Prior knowledge:
By secondary structure, this protein is of the alpha/beta class. Helices cover 42% and strands 20% of the residues. The chain folds into two domains: 4-143 and 308-320, Rossmann fold (3-Layer(aba) Sandwich), CATH 3.40.50.2000; 156-306, Rossmann fold (3-Layer(aba) Sandwich), CATH 3.40.50.2000. The relative contact order is 0.12.
Amino acid sequence: xxxxxxxxxxxxxxxxxxxxxxxxxxxxxxxxxxxxxxxxxxxxxxxxxxxxxxxxxxxxxxxxxxxxxxxxxxxxxxxxxxxxxxxxxxxxxxxxxxxxxxxxxxxxxxxxxxxxxxxxxxxxxxxxxxxxxxxxxxxxxxxxxxxxxxxxxxxxxxxxxxxxxxxxxxxxxxxxxxxxxxxxxxxxxxxxxxxxxxxxxxxxxxxxxxxxxxxxxxxxxxxxxxxxxxxxxxxxxxxxxxxxxxxxxxxxxxxxxxxxxxxxxxxxxxxxxxxxxxxxxxxxxxxxxxxxxxxxxxxxxxxxxxxxxxxxxxxxxxxxxxxxx
Length: 325
């Protein structure tokens, strides 16, 4: 029987689109991307017509597909990305702060054929959150195109952060407040922070050495990465950070907090600091700005070696076809 995949996601991102495009090049794929009650009904109706159910992020919608797929004896796969393992009670952030949502997701994770995680730290969280032995868990990092994310031309001695923070909660998760405090300690250093939601940009004024921007197109992000010396990922939690890996491919020297997948992404090519420590972050940024361009080459080589798109794609095929997992 030809492989016919139902591809579920509550929203679209570049990395979700990349997986979808690859799977479409190999198999018959029906994408159902969206949220709301109608999306839930679409999933229920579509599951019987497919033999593989694949959900990006452990959402309620993915869980509906997984549990329905189990009832119809389909192969079921969940891809964990990071935000889907968040449980930040203080700011009410993450699906696990909801009793009924977490119950559905927990059941889906336990019953899926395979639960993929972009970093092993998420596997540990999935075991804890779902209260089981993790027998169906496997690590499959996202992959990055080294032919797209490339160094080009001279770099300015400045710091870039792509925060992707449309809300106050995301701003806190991404540690932007700690970055701003660190920036105050380095008044001679230029910082650029992009991806900030329009409703909260105004709250980030008053930092003369920090330029804050909203959403920007990928071509502009690429140019910023190519021309910045340091890329900073000050997050309080992460999966495997896409922007950090893309910046490293562009030759940025990484400075990141030692949380989630950040240490794996940085390797020996940059500096790691504890979360919530603005002084340590400022010190690491100052050090990174003084490093030679040999570290720039090391950063790119680390991502090229460890996170190629080809490895991601081959892994997806193996799990989709049941050769592993």
